[in-house]
Amino acid sequence: MKLWIPFAVSAGTLLTIASFVGAGWDAPPVETTQTGFRGTGMYIHRDVEKQEALKVANVVPPAPWQADPSGDKARDLYENVQVLGDLSDDQFNQFMASITEWVAPEAGCNYCHNPENLASDELYQKVVARRMIQMTQAINVDWKAHVGATGATCYTCHRGQGIPTNYWYEDKEPKPAGNMTQNRQGQNVVAKFGGGSSLPQNVLKDYLLDTKPIRVHSTTALPTGTNTATTKETEATWSLMMHMSESLGVNCTTCHNSRAFNDWDQSPPQRVTAWHGIRMVRDINANYVQGLTPVFPDHRKGPEGDVFKVGCATCHAGVQKPLYGVSMLQDYVDALAKKGPTAVPDYTTYQPGTTQKMAPAEQSSAILPKPATAQTAEAVLPTAPATSDN
Ligand code: HEC
Ligand code: HEC
Ligand code: HEC
Ligand code: HEC
């Protein structure tokens, strides 16, 4: 007699009951928005419970006061103002009050300043902050194709903390214990920067710092030899796509029609915005954040010694438009929506606690080279590439 049948039936029944009543087994209430033609699977699903928490976390703080743009300029009033010299005294003070709220609400001015000498650059946080001002100006001026009129302020990333909640670094852990242990090729662990998948865990360096092409799709059913991308590149691309989806709290169909992931003509417009976003993040990381490596103390770096870098989640923090697309720029037009001087000091000479003025050498601004990996806003738009083979 087949004794296993009654056992299998009772186990199956119990599992079915458990799936309906068991803790953690119930599906969250989901809100679904249709974004394309019916029958094409173009839907965005959102967990309603998470949306409530996100709404609370994404409220824009008001400016401390409306600044008066008239009066003497900061460069004439203070000793060591290198980037914000064009602001009026009131605008300058309003901006200092705001960045204190955005970056260091508890520590206050002393997070960046020696209170005995506000002009001194001896605290590394001030040197970093000055470069971050230049970076934020570049985001708002050069990368309108991504940030639009909404733009970004320090608050978009920092949200009241010295280090933003979401960043990435090179993650080689866990390393193989010895020669006999298998090389897992950087995958098959929980990839914290790959949307918690088991896909390759270190791809953001290739795609969001370096400029590795994001092209894996073949356009023919059978191989013709033109597409050289392998399964390895496909997995790496997928890991990046998981990072992007998780960062924005969306699924793949927000940017793709899944019947043809490669085809720009069938993709929603968000994909083009994302394309510019990828180039913007490369620019931020290669030209601003990475250059600050000699300034940051070791405890502000990842286990491989690289600085914490910007990913999509650094600004987006789980929502499709950071802070739901509410702009803060109107109160900081002169500080953050225009470019001040763009020259960069030689950060390798920085001595924390000692350096009084970290300034670019006098005539150096014209000759400073951009790193080779730099991508600029002039990069051409992806108008329906003829083929997406490599
Ligand atoms: C997040 C870092 C940061 C915080 C917090 C901060 N500052 Fe600053 N502060 C800077 C930077 C960077 C400069 C230089 C700006 C430039 O070079 O354009 C500066 C310059 C100044 C100067 C000009 C000093 C001189 O003579 O050159 C004054 C005054 C000043 N800050 C006051 C304040 C006050 C008051 C607070 C607190 C309300 C404050 N700052 C908080 C980063 C900060
Ligand atoms: C696009 C995101 C982004 C924006 C915008 C941004 N920051 Fe940052 N900032 C970062 C990241 C990421 C780090 C961490 C780098 C690290 O620790 O290696 C950082 C670090 C810093 C630090 C060093 C903190 C510490 O304790 O080590 C200061 C100070 C700072 N930012 C100030 C600012 C100011 C002021 C602005 C606005 C003018 C600003 N940032 C805008 C992403 C951003
Ligand atoms: C926020 C928008 C966005 C989301 C969400 C997104 N993608 Fe992408 N995807 C892009 C962009 C932009 C490119 C092209 C990047 C480039 O060319 O630099 C791309 C490229 C790709 C490619 C390569 C296409 C080719 O031509 O070879 C694949 C495959 C892909 N995505 C799959 C996915 C999958 C699977 C998901 C969900 C896990 C996803 N994407 C989520 C924006 C997105
Ligand atoms: C400096 C902050 C910042 C970073 C970093 C950033 N974004 Fe954005 N992103 C924005 C802002 C601001 C908007 C809203 C623009 C607007 O209102 O027009 C936006 C809008 C978008 C949109 C359009 C949403 C819609 O529904 O129209 C997509 C898609 C997007 N970002 C994808 C990305 C991806 C992918 C990355 C990482 C490669 C990224 N972003 C990194 C600031 C950022």
Features:
single chain; 390 residues; mainly alpha; Photosynthetic Reaction Center, subunit C, domain 2; 3 domains; two-stranded antiparallel sheet; 12 helices; 33% helix; binds heme C; Multihaem_cyt_PRC_cyt_su-like; iron ion binding; reaction center; photosynthesis; iron
Helix tally? Answer: 12
Envelope shape: globular
Instruction: Please list the strands of the largest sheet in the order they lie side by side.
Output: 1-2
Average pLDDT rating: 89
Structure, explained:
- With 390 residues, this protein is mainly α.
- A two-stranded antiparallel ribbon has the order 1-2.
- It has 3 domains: 27-57, no CATH class; 59-162 and 328-357, Photosynthetic Reaction Center, subunit C, domain 2; 166-173 and 187-217 and 230-316 and 360-390, Photosynthetic Reaction Center, subunit C, domain 2 (Orthogonal Bundle).
- Residues 363-390 have low confidence and may be disordered.
- The chain is globular.
- It is 33% helix and 3% strand.
- The site of one heme C has 24 residues, from helix 6, helix 9, helix 10 and helix 11.
Provide a concise account of the structure shown.
This protein is about 35% helix and about 5% strand.
Layout of helices and strands:
Elements: H1 4-21, E1 30-34, E2 43-47, H2 48-57, H3 74-77, H4 89-103, H5 124-142, H6 144-147, H7 154-158, H8 203-208, H9 231-248, H10 270-289, H11 312-316, H12 333-336
Antiparallel strand pairs: 1-2
Helix pairs in contact: 5-10
The structure holds heme C (4 copies).
